[in-house]
Amino acid sequence: MSKPKLYVLDTGTMKMDKNYLIAMHNPASIDNPNPPGEFIEFPVYAVLIDHPEGKILFDTGCNPEGMGKNGRWPETVQKLFPAFQDESCYLINRLEQLKVSPKDIKYVVASHLHLDHAGCLELFTNATIIVHDLELANVMKQYAMTKDMGAYIWADVHAWIKNDLKWRTITEEEDEVELVSGVKILNFGPGHAYGMLGLHVILPGKGGIILASDAVYTKENYGPPVKLPGILYDSIGFSKTVEKIRRYAKKTNSEVWFGHDAEQFKTFIKSTEGYYE
């Protein structure tokens, strides 16, 4: 049987105020009453696991049609969280570079459904889309009630429904779910979003990797001490999740890959350079 390979797909970058990444990182004081804002750039990426039991995609980046005058994203979102991609960074092109078509993907694990993680879900009509039950339920409720969905994009959700995607949800009671041999879905629960999922991948050569996504934005959030992000649904849940990941990483002797850590991302082998096995 062939060995699994893990590819890091660079799907571009975004920018936002650093306070969204690390909440209150530069509070005002008597000595510094007007601290300057920082508009920082950070990576957006997906992970492809080419496994003998089927190809697995973790997250899907931003939709290429998000930005611009007639873009999917509302103007306020485009100004607060602009995305930057050339065509080579589009997810479908990153896959094509590896001679992989969307129809070849068996499972897509969506860590959550924010614009920079679920923007291309609509492409995967053959796959089973796996997401946290609370995340899907709350996002669909928002979709039904308003077009102003914050970090969720109404047009993205509309495309998922139009394309009749096949969903599987992970319930609150499911802590760890084996997807295929050596790959487990980790239920992180509420925190950064309504319901977060991660993956634990064991590779014969590399060892264990925890794909944390935005359950932990960066090493600075990870700490210790834990530092909350500014985009947050459940602050207690976020802190509990970080400690859960820390314990799990120690127990399994695994690396933690953060969702948007620019320095860590520089160290990754990208899909254009090679893979992990």
UniProtKB/TrEMBL annotation:
Cofactor: Zn(2+)
UniProt entry keywords in alphabetical sequence: Hydrolase, Metal-binding, Zinc
Pfam families (alphabetical): Lactamase_B (PF00753)
GO molecular function: hydrolase activity; metal ion binding
Presence of keyword Zinc: yes
CDD domains listed in its UniProt record: AHL_lactonase_MBL-fold
InterPro entries, per database record: MBL_superfamily_lactonases, Metallo-B-lactamas, RibonucZ/Hydroxyglut_hydro
Entries under SUPFAM superfamilies matching the protein: Metallo-hydrolase/oxidoreductase
Residue span(s) of domain Metallo-beta-lactamase: 43-260
Similarity-based family: Belongs to the metallo-beta-lactamase superfamily.
Protein name: MBL fold metallo-hydrolase
Organism, scientific name: Caldibacillus debilis
